[in-house]
Amino acid sequence: MAGYETEASGYVEKSRIPAVFLWCSFLSVLLLLSVALAAGIGAVEIGYASVAAIIADAVSRALPFIPSSSLYAGPESHETIILQVRLPRVVVGAVVGFALASAGAVMQGFFRNPMADPSIIGVSSGAAVGAVAVIVYALPFSAQAAAFVGAVATAGIVYGIATKNGRTGIATLLLAGVAVQTFLSAIVSYMMHVSDDEGLRAAVYWLMGNLLYKGWSDVVAVVPPVAVGFVVLLYYSRDLNVLLLGEKEARTLGVEPRRTKLILLAVSSAVTAAAVAVAGVIGFVGLIVPHAMRLVVGADHRILIPTSALAGGVFLVAADAVARFVMGGGELPVGIVTALVGVPFFLYLLRDREVHEL
Amino acid sequence: MISIEDIDVSLAGKKVLENVTASAEDAFVGVVGPNGAGKTTLINAVNGVTDTEDGVVRIDGDDVSSISARETARRVATMPQDTDVSFEFSVKEVVRMGRNPHVPRFGSDTTDKVEEAMERVDVARFADRSVHEVSGGERQRVLLARCLAQDAEVLLLDEPTASLDIGRAVETLSLVRSLVDEGRTAVAAIHDLNLAARFCDELVLVDDGSVVSSGAPSDVLTEENVERVFGTSVHVGRDDATGSVRVTALEETARKERAVEEGLADGGSTARVHYVGDCAENLLLLESAYDVSVGVVPEGCAVADKADNPTEVVTACVGEGAGKEERRSVAELVDEAEVLVRDGAGWIPKDAVNGMPTVTPEDTTDIFAAVESARERTQPR
Fold this sequence. Notes:
By secondary structure, chain A is an all-alpha fold. Chain A is 74% helix and 1% strand. Chain A has one domain: ABC transporter involved in vitamin B12 uptake, BtuC. Chain A has helices at 2-7, 17-39, 48-62, 76-110, 123-137, 143-162, 170-194, 197-208, 216-235, 237-243, 247-252, 257-279, 285-297, 301-326, 334-352, and strands spanning 163-164, 167-168. Chain A has a two-stranded antiparallel ribbon with strand order 1-2. In chain A, helix 5 (123-137) packs parallel to helix 7 (170-194). Chain A is globular, with a radius of gyration of 21 Å. Chain B is of the alpha/beta class. Chain B has two domains: 2-222, P-loop containing nucleotide triphosphate hydrolases (Rossmann fold, 3-Layer(aba) Sandwich); 265-378, Rossmann fold (3-Layer(aba) Sandwich), CATH 3.40.50. Chain B contains 15 helices and 17 strands. Chain B has helices spanning 39-46, 69-75, 91-96, 113-120, 136-150, 166-181, 193-199, 217-220, 223-230, 252-263, 283-287, 302-306, 324-336, 350-353, 367-378; strands spanning 2-11, 14-24, 28-32, 54-59, 62-63, 76-79, 154-158, 185-189, 202-207, 210-215, 234-238, 245-249, 272-277, 291-298, 313-316, 339-343, 358-359. In chain B, the strands form four sheets. A six-stranded mixed beta sheet of chain B has the order 6-7-8-3-9-10, with helices on both faces. Chain B is elongated and about 85 Å long. Classes of the chains: A mainly alpha, B alpha/beta. The A-B interface holds A 7-13, 109, 112-114, 235, 238-239, 241-242, 244-246, 248-249, 251-257, 294, 298-300, 356-357 and B 44, 47-49, 68-74, 76-78, 80, 83-90, 92-94, 96-101, 103-109, 114, 150, 156.
């Protein structure tokens, strides 16, 4: 992973390339470490040595060309808990955090506003309508698929509303996003109002955002769109830098502003949609992580997008670990933790740093 | 090479350029004209930022609207007036963006163009500072460095010296001059007529979206052209130090002196002239040595305000027209006058007009000559 990011850093000062490489390596290691540590947290106590051994064994079995190891010699139930219950959940958390933070970095650049988040054009609200409709009316689709479709459709509608004669105004897009979000929230409220208690509870739980009961099938569902989308975003990251100069200047530097903006918006919305569909509305990851990383690595999106993505993974895995840890044997939806940590940080930024163009 | 072939451009439904034709090849071409004349729009039509409604802009023979942004950016580098970056980019990062059209997406820039450009424009000293931190003048040079790093045949510069002090302005234009001497083509919108005349091979004078004149600076910057376009009196001479054309705008008193000196050179005439009209720009008349009376003109009009002797001015409320009182006063004034200047509508005693030497709006570009010849015509009387 890290090597790939470094290649993308074409116009980074040559002496800074090792720094980028170091950042990405450091964050990758941190991500792996947090995944392993998070897998050790839960109702059943399993030592970290055992967790490490179980994961190492599983990895060696999964990879070709290396002999399968058998370092773990504990109870089989522990192996099942780690591999079938905790690990997929933690990996989903990592991927969702990765997706939300990379999309957030792009949206902040796109809107030239450090307070933008990945759902700014209504992706989450659209996902909520899809998922809640399936839950409340017991429709014959998966809530995940309905959420993804709802999210992408909403992004498309908002974009359509904000586009006139081929031009898409940033402010119009922002306001259309807010209006459509409010509208969709009303629909969600209505559906919850007419729902029975069981449906209501399930809907509320979905809306809070959580990683409960995530299995490998969820990993399989979320990884491909996020991976493909991430590569596309990285591919356009230098154009995004140039777009920060404004559309006219970008055009004189060889960037086709309208096409590039459409691609960036569509792909980051799709990446967000994939994450929200699998984990519900988890707020503030996509806002705080890119913002914090920008303070550390600077505004160059070719560095900011990959480092934000990795840091987002770490952040959500850690938040989820906290969510499970504080409740002891119980569970706390991770969205609550990210909001509890995120809102104070957001307010701090609001007070401390200049907010551009709002 | 750039060729602009009879283009029309509209912005927000308003025609900003109309039937503009110009070209530039291996030369430094300055675009001059008053604010809002369409200079920036002309530059944006060449680099593809603004679509033309009619006509074609060609770069090396290719229609700009048919080649990609990337290809255009390889051929044409644009230096905007200022830049507006929302996030903290360093000076070096901004200069590096000039390499964008040349560098493959996942590749890196293997040339030294960025370093060279920063050295040449003298911004290397603050390469690592944020573009927000540097002064407006320094930022303009950063943008020029970006332009150089872009390494295009054609340079378009929008007011490249707007935020620069005189030393840096001359330095910047000399640099552009030397780039042109190395075989590039440069087109610059330049506010300062003297700098434009000094550094450019050719000038294009635009006014209200049309080309008024183009060619060598000395042919374009004539007193007549400049006065017509800028609406102010000027003196055009030669600069002692550089030998280039020098345009000096004249202030009110200087204009008056000049009016006396030039307009009334023969005979030192102090003719009695009466002005009537709708208050067009005939202030020059009032600044001459003529004894000018005015009326009837609308209340509050500039001609009325400028007149030396208020008793010789008759005004009327707009819409009401001249009353009995006003008409009598005007008739008296006209009676005393030798020449009548009639600029547009306005009441005048009918009998006075007959046989009175009259100057009409067609003559007003050279009001003094017109007045003098009108007087001569009546001498035998």
